[in-house]
Give the backbone structure.
Amino acid sequence: MFSRAVCITALLLAGASTHAGDIEATATTVAGQPLADVAVVLEPVAGYPRGPMPTVTIAQRDRELIPYMTVVQVGTAIEFPNQDPFKHHLYSFSPPKNFEIKLYAGKPEKPIVFDKPGEVALGCNIHDWMEAYVLVVATPYFAKTDAHGRARIAHVPPGSYRLRWWHPRQKRELPARAIKIGAAPTRLTQALDVPPRIIKPKPPLDKDSY
């Protein structure tokens, strides 16, 4: 789901530091604070180019899933290495990718291929506070905002696109917006209604258990 838009601007950038066709996006909360882990997605109206896709990693470390949010293109393989000295039981019940990797240590033999678009929530059957999210998109033109609320999509071909903003904790769906990308760089800004993340407390580590 996509949250209600609060503001959006598309302005031409000037300056030699940014290459033509690059997109610079900034996401904030409704209070104006930088917002991390926002997916910025450009969907070409004319169709989705495909190319070689790297394998992506979501690690299990210190009884957490890292990173908290990941964006990938349809067909991407994701590895889930367990970097803790005890076992995890990773799962997703989300329709775009329903899977389980039962109690395991180290690195699973095969990565999981995310072959359908949509939102995927991940959890651990042993440690119920562990959570992470994957947004699977058809387009190769996407990015995720950093701790400063900034993201960059490089070398976007000129043309007509649908622009989508997404965050796993957003309250309402933000419909896709039509946008034209030219040869000049473009800056995008969006405020999203996203509540703060509530960090679930972890119990003390018991060396004799998981």
In short: Confidence is low (pLDDT under 50) at residues 1-20.
